[in-house]
Amino acid sequence: MAAPPSTTPRKFLGLMSLPERNFVADALRTETVGGVLLLIAAVAALIWANTLPHSYEAVSHFHFGPAALGLDLSVEHWAADGLLAIFFFVAGIELKRELVAGDLKDPKAAALPVVAAACGMAVPAFVYVLTNLSGGGSLEGWAVPTATDIAFALAVLAVIGTSLPSALRAFLLTLAVVDDLFAILIIAVFFTSSINFAALGGSVVGLGLFWLLLRREVRGWYVYVPLAVVIWALMYNSGIHATIAGVAMGLMLRCHQREGEEHSPGEHIEHVVRPVSAGLAVPLFALFSAGVSVSGGAIHDVFTRPETLGVVLGLVVGKAVGIFGGTWLTARFTRASLSDDLEWADVVAVATLAGIGFTVSLLIGELAFAGNTSLTDETKAAVLIGSFIAAVLATALLKIRNAKYRALCEAEELDEDHDGIPDIYERDNPAYHLRMAAIHERKAAEHRRLAEVAGGASEGDDGPA
Q1: Do 409 and 428 lie in a common domain?
Q2: Do 377 and 441 fall within a single domain?
Q3: Cα angle vertex 331, ends 394, 403, to 5°?
Q4: pLDDT by residue (tens digit) across 324-356?
Q5: Which domain holds residue 393?
Q6: In the beta sheet, which residues pair with residue 99?
Q7: Which residue, 203, 243, 424, 462, could crosslink 234 as a Cys pair with Cβ 3.0–4.6 Å?
C-alpha cells in the first residue's frame, strides 16, 4: 500500500533530499570555477583597457564575418551575440531541469524562489526609475540592475571560503535560474525594436526541426551543431536578440531519465557544453565587455549621473531589499517557513550577494543605451562598481555568519555509523535508529570489556605485591 502524501508544509530553505544536495554540490563546483575564470577575464579587460586603450578598442571593434548573411560583426558583438548564446543555452537546460525535476516542479516550493527572484528584479528597477525621475535622467536603463550573475556570486563564496549550508546554496542557484528566465523575457520583450518576420519565421521552422529531431532521438553533433548555427543566425537577423535561440534550444532537451538511462540527454549535453560556456564563452564576453575606464573622473561620474547612480543603487540596495523582502513576505503570508537551523541574517547575506550583476547586466546595458557609447561605457563602470560594493558587503556579512555556517555544515556531514550516508538523512528511518543502537551497544560492551581487563590487571598487580 502506497504511503499517503505528506501534508507537512515544506520548510523554506530546509533540508533537501540527498540526491538534490549532491547535484547542487556538483553544480556549485562547476559554477565556482567558471566564476573564477570570469573574474580573471574581467580584471584582464580592465588592465588592458586602461593601459593600452587604443589596442583594446581596435581589437574589440575589429569586424569579420559574412556580410551577405548580415553577420559582419565586431569582435565585441560576436562575443555578446554569438558566444553568449552558448551561456543562455546552458541556462535553458538548467531551467528545463528545474521545471521537470527540481524545486520549480513543485508549485508550492517554486513559489519561494519565484517570488524572491521577481521582487529581486522589480525593486532594483523601481530604485533605478526613482533615482532617474528625481535626477532627470533617462529611464532606458531600468533593466540593467535587475540581473544576478550566479557564477560571480559563487566565485565570491569560493574566495572567502565559507561553509555555506547546502539549502542556502540551492536557494541561490534556483533564484539565479528564475532570475535568468526573467532576464530572457526582458531582453525579448523590451529590447526588440523591429522584427524581420521572414528571418523569424525561418528560425521558428529551424526550432521546429530541432525539436522533431530530438523527439525522433536522432543522434550526432554533426546534425545539431550546424542546425543550431542556422537557427542562431536567423534569430539574429530577425531583430530579436540571438541569445533567445540558445534558450529555446536548451528548453527543448529532455531532462528526465528513462528506464536504463544513467543520464538524461539534457544532463549529458550540459555536461559537454558547460565547460565551453564557463571556460570560453563567458570569459571572452567579459574580456570584451568589461574594459572601461576606471579613472577618478569616471568613478566620480558614476556617482553623480542619475543613470549610473541608479544602476549602483539598484544592485546594492534594490537587490538586497527585493530578495529579502520577497522571501520574508512569502514566509509571512504563506505556509512556508524558514528552516529551524537558519536565521534571517543568512537570507540577508545571500540577498546582498545576489547584488553581483555582471554578465547579463552588461549585456542589457549595451542594449539599453545602444548608440550612446559614452553612456554605455559609464553604465558598464556602474555595473562593475555596484557589483564590487555588493561583493564586499556580502563578504563581510558571510564572514560574520561563517562560524554558524561551519557548524551547520559539520552537522550535515556527520556520519557516525560510517555507511557513507550522512546521519541527518537517516534520522527518520527506523532502521537507522536500530543500527545506531547496535553501534552504541557494541561501544558500551567494548568499554565494559576494557574496564574488566583493566580491573583484572590491577588485581594481578596487587597479588604478587
Answers
A1: no
A2: no
A3: 35
A4: 999 898 888 887 666 666 678 888 988 999 998
A5: 12-191+241-413
A6: none
A7: 203
